[in-house]
Each structure stands twice: as C-alpha cells, then as structure tokens.
Specification:
The structure holds two protein chains of two kinds.
Chain A (H helix, E strand, L loop, with lengths): L1 H14 L22 H8 L6 H12 L10 H5 L2 H4 L9 E3 L4 E3 L1 H13 L9 H12 L15 H12 L9 H5 L6 E2 L2 E2 L10 E3 L4 E3 L1 H11 L10 H13 L10 E2 L1
Parallel strand pairs in A: 5-7
Antiparallel strand pairs in A: 1-2, 3-4, 5-6
Helix pairs in contact in A: 3-7, 6-7, 8-11, 10-11
Chain B lengths: L3 E4 L3 E2 L4 E8 L21 E8 L2 E7 L9 E7 L4 E9 L4 E10 L1
Parallel strand pairs in B: 2-8
Antiparallel strand pairs in B: 1-3, 3-6, 4-5, 4-7, 7-8
Classes of the chains: A mainly alpha, B mainly beta.
C-alpha cells in the first residue's frame, strides 16, 4: 500500500493545477523534528550522539583562533560567545546598512572575517564556515526565532514570499504547493514537512555532514527540476529570510538532525 | 580537526552495567565513489576502534567502508573500579586519535 499511496501523493502534487496556497496557522506550525522517528529524535536530543555537535566544537576552536592578518580572533571583540552570541542567529538573515540588503549568518561571518580579521572569505559549505555558523547558532538554541522584525527587511521578506509562491521548474511546483498545502502528506515515503528552518546549519544523514539552509533550498529547487541559484544569491537570501520570518516564534534547534 | 564526543557516566555503583557512547569526527570516504571526472575518490576510513578500562582492553571494533561518516559506537561494560577509560581510533592515511574519560565507582 505504501508505494501506491506515495504515487497517489506524487500525482496529487503534480496534477492539481490551482491549489490554493493557504498559509499554515500559527498554532499548527510544527518543526521538522516532530515528523522524525524516535531514533532520529534521540540522536538530536543527546549532545554526545548528535554529530552536529562535532562541528559546534570545531566552531568553538575557530572562534578563539586568529584567522587573518589583523591578528585578531572572533573572541577578541565578541568575548564569550555564550553571552555575546545568545539570540543572534535567531534574528538572521539581518539587514546590513552598509550593503543595503539582508545578509545570512554565513555571510555575516565572512564580512566580519574580511573587515576585522583581514582573513580571506570561507567558501560556502566549507567545514570551517559551517562550524562557525553552527557554533554561533547553537548559542540561540531554545530561543524563539525573531528574524524579519526589522522594518527595512519588509521588501525582502515580500520578495522571499513571492519566490515561495512562485511555480518553477519542469515539475512546475512552488515551495507552497508542498510545504503549505501538503505538509501532512508523504512524498516517496518521507514526510513532506512544513519547511520551518529551525535548526540550521543542520546535520542531514543523507548528506553525512552539516549543511546550510541554502544547500537545502538548492536541493529542493533541483528536485522540482528548476535551475538552482548560486550560493549567496539574493533570491536564496530572500527565501531564507522569508522562511525564518514564517517560523517566527518557533524555537531554534541548531544543530538539528534530519534524515 | 579531529574531535570526539564521549559519554561515560561520571559515577556508577560497583557492578553496575554502564553504557559508553562515543562519536568520532571522520568523513569515512568509502573508496567506491567517483568524482564528476570519473576518478575514484581514495578510501579514507577509520579501520579500528579500541577501548581500555584502566589499561585492560574491554572493547574493540573493526570498521569497514559501509559505515557512515562520524561513526557513533556505543557499548556496555560492568563498572568494576574507579579509573580511566581510554579510547583509540586508527584509520587510513595515518589517522590516529585518542580520548579518555574518568569514572568513579562507589
């Protein structure tokens, strides 16, 4: 029966032309965590079995390490991250006045490295960048997401919302077709889920590694057979911002574990 | 940057069965994958894990290419005496890493 149901769900996702994209009411929002099996939940819950914590440990080491020509470490300005970084990742992507656009936590780390530490930027999805992002975001674990509060972000949130609703690719699907309208169903045996980015960067068992929300978005975009945006593209940042503001008030889980 | 996470109870009663959990940072590249250019990515895995309790080996495992990245190994032992548990991982390309944890047995 399961394959038949999966085919039926896939057919429904593909064949219904004009599904009304109804946003999920606040009291029905669920973290991806609640869709997981007990083993995956246990893996995330125990910091000594959560492989994301290995990256957090590496990030802590990098936090205290002088990375560039300025001879300064993150800790030299920011001190103890447990205090200074508390709640910071929960409000990212945040508006950067100098650039006039929102930046993700990964982009903020690279800006800081360039401006204050005189260090070359870390590549997207490199172990060091993911480790630093995970270490910073881990300081917000358990805190509610507050991203998108800044009024200057409004046009960017709207752009992200438009992208979320925009059908694209050979399968002609919008994010909303699955994650707003069919999140309680299954696709090829796996739960569709509501796409709340509560635990990024997170450890995906499929990736055998930590990965950013941008990586996740790119694989979803490839999944609907559309052309993926490059890492750091304004479209991905706008989508990330919209998703974070859509998950407003939900608790941060970094580093989460997902199948 | 090799790092390990170890979970050993800090205290246990004499004769208690205790669970020991270890998580080691490692890519565990199987040696069967190819790059986009078609070349084989060389194997790079942990091949052996050992645990010693006050110098006596109490657990050993051989690891193989089908084991996923960042191997998590958990096992049980009987808490006999206070002391030190030492862990050792050995692998390809000269990989070697150690960690330890203390336990108080009352």
């Amino acid at each position: 029966m399961i394959p038949l149901r999966a085919i039926a769900a896939a057919a429904l996702l593909a064949a219904v032309p004009a599904l009304l994209a109804a946003e999920i009411p606040a009291d029905q929002r669920r973290s991806g965590y609640s869709f997981m099996g007990p083993d995956s939940k246990a893996m995330q819950d125990d910091d000594t079995s959560n492989p994301g914590m290995l990256f957090v440990l590496d990030g802590e080491a990098l936090w205290n390490q002088k990375l560039g020509s300025a001879g300064k470490a993150c800790a030299d300005c920011h001190g103890d991250a447990r205090e200074s970084m508390k709640g910071v990742a929960a409000r990212y992507p945040a508006f950067d006045k100098g650039l006039g656009r929102p930046v993700t936590i990964e982009q903020r780390i690279n800006l800081e490295l360039a401006q204050r530490e005189g260090a070359p930027p870390l590549a997207y999805e490199s172990r060091d960048l993911l480790a630093l992002a995970a270490f910073v975001a881990n300081q917000s674990r358990g805190m509610p997401i507050t991203a998108g509060d800044d009024p200057e972000l409004k046009p960017f949130v709207e752009k992200g919302r438009a992208l979320f609703m925009q059908r694209e690719g050979q399968l002609n699907l919008a994010c909303a077709n699955c994650h707003d309208d069919n999140w309680d169903r299954r696709l090829a045996g796996s739960p569709v889920t509501q796409a709340h980015p509560t635990g990024y960067p997170l450890y995906r068992l499929e990736w055998q590694s930590l990965g950013s929300l941008e990586r996740r978005l790119r694989s979803c975009i490839t999944g609907v057979r559309a052309q993926g945006y490059d890492y750091g593209a304004p479209e991905l940042v706008a989508l990330e911002l919209f998703l974070m503001s859509r998950a407003r008030g939900m608790k941060m889980e970094t580093p989460a574990v997902r199948p | 940057m090799a790092s390990a996470l170890i979970n050993v109870p800090a205290k246990a009663g004499r004769g208690d069965v205790i669970e020991i959990k270890t998580l080691m940072s490692h890519i565990m590249e199987s040696g069967f994958r190819r790059t986009a250019a078609g070349e084989i990515v060389p194997r790079d895995i942990i091949t052996s894990f050992t645990c010693r309790y006050n110098g006596t080996e109490i657990f050993r495992a051989d690891l193989f290419p089908a084991i996923s990245a960042n191997p998590f190994i958990s096992f049980f032992t009987v808490a006999k005496e206070s002391g030190k548990l030492e862990f050792e991982w050995v692998g390809d390309n000269g990989f070697a890493s150690t960690a330890s944890a203390s336990i108080t047995v009352e």
